[in-house]
Specification:
Blueprint lengths: L10 H23 L3 H4 L11 H14 L1 H15 L4 H19 L5 E3 L2 E3 L1 H17 L4 H21 L23
Antiparallel strand pairs: 1-2
Helix pairs in contact: 3-7, 4-7, 5-6
């Protein structure tokens, strides 16, 4: 039998396709860990906290619960502020690729020099490296103001968002900041 007309494949192509398939699955699952936007912006759950301690508790609980949503909001605000700075935008897109591979698409914990690096450390390091590289592109005040606006939006939302209707469906690494059922 002849086998002409078939295209030989190398094992390398199979691993690339497997990686793309895993990346798609990972994107869907990671976006699945973000909380629904309807739940986040539920107007019935917005109210002023009774005191500073309740505001701090709300900020701690909400930042743990809506972590992925808050990262997305800050990155969108930063992206929108860079539309008029093309070089900064290119740096931002490159850093977004780093974010995708080092934070959003990872299947396993990040290990450097036989040491496991936690998600929060990865987020902080990527955030700092992104900001430093963007500051080197001479859009300093634009970047600083957009990051500060993003942080203010996140902190205000986290302080005003009630934590009474939040529950943990699956294990989320938040350090145990979910309200208990007894309180």
């Amino acid at each position: 039998m002849t086998s002409y007309g078939t295209i030989p494949t190398s094992p390398l192509e199979g691993t690339n396709l497997e990686y793309i398939s895993r990346a798609k699955t990972r994107i869907k699952s990671e976006l699945g860990t973000r909380r629904p936007w309807k739940q986040m912006f539920n107007l019935n759950s917005l109210n002023f906290p009774n005191g500073v301690s309740n505001a701090v508790k709300g900020i701690t609980t909400n930042t743990g619960y809506f972590r992925m949503n808050y990262v997305i909001i800050i990155l969108i605000i930063l992206f929108l502020s860079l539309l008029w700075h093309p070089i900064s935008l290119i740096v931002f897109v490159v850093m977004m690729a780093a974010w995708l591979f080092l934070y959003f698409l990872r299947d396993e914990p990040l290990v450097i020099f036989h040491r496991t690096i936690g998600d929060r450390t990865v987020v902080v390091v990527l955030f700092v490296v992104t900001i430093v590289l963007l500051l080197l592109t001479s859009a300093t005040w634009n970047i600083i103001s957009s990051v500060l606006i993003g942080l203010v939006v996140v902190v205000v939302h986290a302080a005003l968002r009630s934590t009474d209707d939040l529950f943990d469906d699956d294990r989320v690494e938040t350090g145990g900041y979910f309200p208990s059922s007894s309180s």
